[in-house]
Design brief:
The chain is of the alpha/beta class. The strands form 4 sheets. The chain has a 6-stranded mixed sheet, with helices on both faces. The protein has a 5-stranded mixed sheet with strand order 14-13-15-16-17. Helix 2 crosses helix 3 and helix 9 packs parallel to helix 14. The radius of gyration is 28 Å and the shape is elongated. Bound molecules: adenosine-5'-triphosphate (ATP) and magnesium ion (MG). The site of adenosine-5'-triphosphate has 20 residues, from loops.
């Protein structure tokens, strides 16, 4: 191995500060599969204050795996290899690691027995090639796989640690959690990395940057300093804050103060300070206020309803969603007057309002949402180009908000941004509804609300 003298260092207790992840699998080098295990592992490692310095993806080939392992071992304290622990010929990780470290592979009878039992429980006889999964490098600790046959392996080399974890995420994740609670957690240093994801709507990336740069630039001088990253996604801007401190409370505490500073300048545009999605925030607001929702969608094709029902426990607030795509169905399913469509066009404020009110009325919900727009690529005009979307929210009580938007991008981006706009308009309506000192929201159907920007 590339780190000579490794074995001379008395190890075991020195904290693991840095890690590299090696994802093994030829499918991960194709256009069809993405290495997601490293994202999960990075989250868990960061939680222990272990910093991931490099990630490598290699195919199922001996030279590639060995090269990645040796490079990683020379650079970092902890190397995690995922995948390639299966029973087939192209699963090489176990053999290559044993060979590189000069460890003999021996069959572990307990592991073989465990695999045999797993097969027996499914009325199957264990194929002989599964014995490969019971081969353990001498001195390695066997890690139980609650969801599969391939056990994980933990190897200590001096003060370094090497982990071999199975590729399937459902097998890897519980194993990683057990490691965090056990041997990995006890080898981590006291230093902790705290991260917070803040989410903003209603502002562009540069507007967010303009508002928050004077604030976060000061944080670099704080103890501990805070690293800030701004990430733009369609319909939402994310601020990622990271602080490393000697303990969890110090790292978390400094981010708490920083979050409050951002909340003061971003106001209601900051919708999440704990990583929650917009639909979760809307769901929580509905539940907290005991309000129900119904949705009448056109161009989003059910995406708003789909996102709302992604929230666990959504039956507590979500009543129904209708996709009324044709003009006739807008009238038949949600009572949108045919004359309104005739007069203003399907993509118009009066139709969005009628969709919202129809959904609210027919769903007997406290709040109705209407979405109509032109997702493209066809159907646009000079007056209403592709990306024009009108969203209305009726309720709670006699509130009404209606807004029209011009979203950039192709069909799926327009649909996504429209769903984001709809959820956000609901969120703001719910926030306003219990804001006693806020100016009254416009109660009449066709008058623009104060959410309505000049067109
Ligand atoms: P098995 O015992 O199931 O064969 P294995 O450790 O050999 O486990 P692989 O055969 O390499 O794992 O992969 C099994 C499955 O897990 C495949 O569907 C693969 O795409 C997926 N997988 C492997 N590595 C990753 C990764 N890094 N991220 C996400 N999925 C992965
Ligand atoms: Mg594989």
């Amino acid at each position: 191995v590339a780190d000579p003298g490794l074995d001379c260092i008395a190890g075991g207790s020195a904290p693991l500060g840095t890690a590299e992840i090696v994802a093994v699998g030829s499918e991960l080098l194709t256009a069809f599969r993405l290495d997601t295990n490293s994202l999960f592992l990075t989250g868990r490692l960061n939680g222990l204050g272990i910093e991931v310095r490099r990630k490598t993806v290699v195919g199922d080939d001996r030279a590639g795996i060995r090269d990645a392992l040796e490079g990683a071992l020379a650079r970092t304290d902890l190397v995690i290899l995922t995948g390639g622990l299966g029973p087939t010929d192209d699963d090489l990780t176990r053999e290559v690691v044993a060979e590189a470290l000069g460890l003999a592979l021996e069959e572990d009878a307990t592991v073989t027995e465990g695999i045999r039992r797993r097969f027996a429980a499914r009325q199957l006889v264990m194929p002989e090639n599964n014995r490969r999964q019971a081969m353990v490098p001498r001195g390695a600790v066997v890690l139980e796989n609650v969801n599969g046959t391939a056990p994980g392996l933990l190897i200590e080399r001096g003060r370094k640690m090497i982990l071999l974890l199975p590729g399937p995420p459902g097998e890897l994740q519980p194993m990683a959690d057990a490691l965090v609670a056990g041997p990995l957690g006890s080898r981590a240093g006291r230093r902790r990395l705290a991260r917070r994801v803040l989410r903003v709507t209603g502002r562009t990336e540069s507007h967010v940057e303009q508002a928050v740069q004077p604030i976060y630039s000061r944080w670099r001088a704080w103890h501990p300093p805070i690293e800030t990253t701004i990430l733009a996604a369609p319909g939402q801007i994310e601020l990622h804050l990271t602080a490393g401190a000697e303990d969890e409370i110090a790292a978390g505490g400094v981010l708490e103060v920083a979050t409050a500073e951002l909340a003061a300048v971003l106001g209601a545009d900051l919708f999440s300070t704990d990583g929650r999605t917009l639909e979760e925030v809307v769901g929580n607001l509905c539940r907290a206020r005991g309000l129900s929702l119904a949705v009448g969608e056109s161009c989003t094709g059910g995406l708003v309803a789909s996102r709302l029902t992604d929230v666990p426990g959504s039956s507590a607030f979500f009543i129904f969603g209708v996709v009324a795509y044709s003009n006739e169905s807008k009238t038949a399913a949600l009572g949108v007057p045919a004359e309104t469509i005739q007069l203003h066009g399907a993509v118009s404020k009066p139709v969005a309002v009628a969709l919202a009110e129809g959904a609210r009325r027919r769903g007997r919900a406290d709040v109705g949402v209407g979405v109509t727009g032109i997702a493209g690529p066809g159907g646009g005009s000079a007056h209403k180009p592709v990306g024009t979307v009108v969203i209305a929210v009726a309720g709670p009580a006699n509130g009404l908000s209606v807004r029209s938007y011009s979203f950039p991008g192709g069909r799926s981006q327009v649909k996504h941004q429209a769903s984001q706009g709809a959820l956000d308009l609901v969120r703001r309506a719910l926030l306003d509804s219990d804001d006693a000192i806020a100016p009254a929201r416009v109660p009449h159907a066709h008058a623009p609300s104060r959410h309505d920007p000049p067109e």
